[in-house]
Amino acid sequence: MVCHIMKFGSNEEANQIEFSKMASETRKDGGDSEAVAGHRWMEMVKERWQATREHAETYPFVWASYILVYGGVGVYMTYRWRKLRKTEERVRALHEHLKKLVEADEAAASKSSMATAEGIAEKVEKGS
Asked: What is the pTM of this model?
């Protein structure tokens, strides 16, 4: 089995041969394809990390501008997110306060209507 691995170095053929040997050894041992896939994934991550690291060392000003721009965007988004959450908390608190006021007003209105109804009932009984 020959697998093609993307490599950012000069020894791509050597890595393909090593991977082919590892794949054939695992097939002989018991066909542990998950271990090979996991190993291949780890190798790809390591290679990508090395390529990125080399690029960052070669072009530090480009990476500094990335950090500055994306860091600034991240700080701004965090600021707006926190401001939104604080506003939502204030709205919830005001809503709860308004709800309590409405309930108190309804309770007072029902008591006054009950008192008015009782007063009318007493007048009707006296008048009869």
From this structure: 0.47
Judge contact between 19 and 7, C-beta under 8 A.
no
Region of residue 83 (phi > 0: left; psi between -120 and 50: alpha; otherwise: beta): alpha
Looking at residue 78, what DSSP letter applies?
Answer: H
Residue range 76-87: mean pLDDT, rounded: 98
Q: How many CB atoms lie within 10 A of CB 24?
A: 12
Angle formed by the axes of helices 12-29 and 33-58, nearest 10°: 160
Task: Report the distance separating Cα 42 and Cα 5, nearest Å.
Answer: 12
Buried b (16+ CB within 10 A) or exposed e, 10-20: eeeeebeeebe
Distance of CA 29 to the CA centre of its chain: 42
